[in-house]
Amino acid sequence: MDADTRLSHLRAQAGRVLRTPLPRLIAADPARAHDLALRVGPVYANFARQYYDREALQALFDAAEAVDARGRLRALFDGERINHTEDRSVLHTALRGSHSDAPVARDAHAQALEARGRMRALVDTLAATDVTDVVSVGIGGSDLGPRLAVDALAAAGHDRVRVHFLSNVDGHAAQRVLARLDPSRSAALLISKTFGTQETLLNGAILRDWLGGTERLFAVSANVERAATAFDIPPERILPMWDWVGGRYSLWSAVGLPIALAIGMDGFEQMLAGAADMDAHVLHTPIERNLAAWHALTAVWNRNALGLTTHAVLAYDERLKLLSNYLQQLVMESLGKSVRADGSPVAVDTVPVWWGGAGTDTQHSFFQALHQGTSIVPADFIGVVRSDAPFADNHRALHANLLAQTEAFANGQASDDPHRAYAGGRPSTTILLDALTPHSFGALLSMYEHSVYLQSVVWGINAFDQFGVELGKQVANRLLPALAGEAEADDPVTRALIQQLR
Ligand code: F6P
Q: How far does the centroid of ligand 1 lie from the alpha carbon of residue 142, in Å?
């Protein structure tokens, strides 16, 4: 049976499962509250409120088996050239641990360790200066991971250096960041794998001019030469990146320098260790007990068996409020594909739209639609057991809300008044971290990365290229002369719009 046929069989499973309302499915199998849960170190995940049963789960495990999911994981860790459209290895796992004897993976790990040594030296050097603020300039994978990590973990470390992020090409973004800072006490870090990204080049130039020269400019890039020539930065102030690390998987490399500046190099290395622990679990654990595989197969079930078109990430912790932004790129840039490895169209739907925010705020914005709207939105609810804030009543209320929402989504509530009825049957996974530390944070992100990869394996698509973002960039570059009044745009609607802009 080929993978597509197997996936369409999942739909038949769904037809069977959906005949029983979710609360009854759960009541009929009380042990599932414990059995459909996994713990890996500080990460606990409970899948009991997903709209499947054990038979459906087995069908999902079989689907993973059919595509040799564990063999494909081994291929990732061993540095096989699984990014076949760009003929590249994908070795972000080598940035945080040594999991493979393959020469290419060992070599990558050695390079990562050397770069880490340079990162530590740079963090120390900056700490010995009078620099109080660092502006990190980058976009997409060169921004979202570090921005999330700094926001989530900054309280865990020293804040001798305050880190600010600048990504958007909109000049208001630069204006806002710089308005609060003193150039004589600031430095800038330009992060770009390619050093060809329009936004980062323009914002980098603004920073260079604002700082009054290149003396306090640093860079991280896979294209050291371009960084050196474009901004006149000496090579010793440019940290390396490599083509075997995808942008959205790069916060574990020197791209994570803003994190090391904000929480200290030791904290950064604890984050890597947390990710490495999760890597070891994912690589060595059979699919039936493998957390990333469960997460991935649940996503496949919701997309292909239940036909759900979006997925929400709801972080019940203020410090993780940027998690959904980060995951949007990780998931949607990786899985937003509609052709398989051989170029043939996929036979089933791939990535749903990922979105989300932080609870409890979002309960007062879009939860109405989640409870009573016509679209069912499966969700990851993420909570943290231990609070680091001194307000115990708030923390208990936060937990009460997290638990209440997942219960209400699943069980609903009958009413004679249709306006006041809740249908229930809304699936969710509850993920709990023991505490929010660099270690647990690293483990959580690693879990999501592997889930994304395993989804791509089931769907037969390449999770590591992103050709879809190129066209818009090319057209934007073509339109610059038209906007400057030096040429006419070809497209009639664009021409009319440019007239308005002028
Ligand atoms: O959005 C497209 C993209 O290529 C992402 O994949 C990448 O993370 C981002 O642009 C930034 O690229 P760079 O690090 O090369 O500036």
A: 7
Q: In this structure, is the dihedral angle defined by the CA atoms of residues 31, 33, 37 and 41, taken in order, positive or negative?
A: negative
Distance of CA 255 from the midpoint of ligand 1 (Å) = 12
Rounded distance between C-alpha atoms, residue 188 and residue 500, angstroms: 36
Q: Which carries the bigger pLDDT value, residue 158 or residue 330?
A: 330
What are the helix and strand counts (H, E) for the chain?
A: 20, 11
State whether 253 and 117 are in the same domain: yes
How far is the centre of ligand 1, averaged over its atoms, from the C-alpha of 140 (Å)? 5
Helices (H), 308-391: 323-327, 334-335, 367-372
Examine the domain organization and report whether 350 and 240 are in the same domain. Answer: no
Name all residues whose Cβ lies below 6 A of ligand 1.
Answer: 139-142, 192-194, 197, 200, 247-248, 333, 466, 469
Question: What is the residue with the minimal CA distance to atom 9 of ligand 1?
Answer: 140
User: Is the domain of 151 the same as that of 263?
Assistant: yes
Distant-in-sequence, close-in-space partners of 450: CB < 8 Å, separation ≥ 6: 73, 278, 279, 282, 292, 296
Domain that holds residue 158: 92-269
> In Å, what is the CA distance from 395 to each residue of 57, 192, 320, 359, 431?
34, 39, 15, 12, 16
| d(CA 197, ligand 1 centre) in Å | 7
Q: What number is the average pLDDT over the span 13-24?
A: 96
Distance between first and last Cα of the chain:
59
Q: Are residues 27 and 66 in the same domain?
A: yes
Q: Which atom of ligand 1 is nearest to the CA of 142?
A: 14
- Strands 353-358 and 310-316 come out as parallel
Q: Report whether pLDDT(159) > 80.
A: no
Same domain, 352 and 218: no
Q: Mutation test of ligand 1: which of 194, 329, 470 has the most ligand atoms closer than 8 Å to its C-beta? A: 194
Taking the whole predicted model, whether its pTM rises above 0.90 is answered as yes
Residues 6+ apart with CB under 8 A from 47: 36, 37, 38, 294, 298, 429
Beta pairing, strands 162-166 & 428-433: unpaired
- For residue 35, give the CATH number of its domain: 3.40.50.10490
Q: Is the same domain home to 190 and 147?
A: yes
Mean pLDDT along residues 280-295: 98
pLDDT tens-digit series, residues 42-97 = 999 999 999 999 999 999 999 999 999 999 999 999 999 999 999 999 999 999 99
Is 218 in the same domain as 150? Answer: yes
289 with 384, same domain: the answer is yes
Is residue 275 situated within a structural domain? no
Amino acid at 68: D
Q: For residue 197, which atom of ligand 1 is closest to its CA?
A: 16
Is the bond leading into 20 cis (omega within 30 degrees of zero)? Answer: no
Active site positions, annotated: 333, 364, 473
Q: Whose CA is nearest to atom 10 of ligand 1?
A: 140
Protein residue closest via CA to atom 13 of ligand 1: 192
Q: What is the pLDDT of residue 136?
A: 98
